[in-house]
Specification:
Layout lengths: L16 H9 L4 H15 L1 H6 L10 H13 L3 H19 L5 H4 L5 H4 L6
Length: about 120
């Protein structure tokens, strides 16, 4: 979902985004966490439920996983599209929250850090 590009030459893999995602959810209402847990189960069993394949998402090879996941965004199934949008938003949130990404998107950092004499 977050490929390294010329515009943003940052590899997302070592950022441990799933842990950042979990940390973000620590302050979310319980219902939001439950909904996202259900979404993860749906993603894991998506190949079986939607494609009638006797496998899970985590057992697909990287190319199959990428293809399968990209189909969610364009699916005629509203639930699949909603899950895709929610996950993409959350992972973009935690990815773009990394300080090393900021210079590539023109974000100078939190204003509190930039204000002389103010400690965030």
């Amino acid at each position: 979902m977050l490929p390294k590009t010329d515009a943003i030459p940052i590899d997302a893999a070592p950022m441990d985004l799933p842990r950042a995602f979990d940390n973000f959810l620590a302050n979310e209402p319980k219902q939001n966490v439950k909904d996202l847990q259900k979404a993860l189960v749906l993603i894991e069993f998506g190949p079986l439920a939607f494609d009638k394949r006797l496998t899970t998402f985590s057992r697909l090879d990287t190319a199959e996983r990428t293809t399968h996941w990209n189909e969610w965004a364009l699916s005629g199934n509203v639930l699949r599209r909603q899950v895709s949008i929610a996950m993409r938003k959350f992972f973009n949130l935690v990815y773009f929250d990394h300080e090393q990404v900021w210079p590539h998107i023109g974000y100078p950092g939190p204003s509190m850090k930039r204000t002389p004499g103010v400690t965030p």
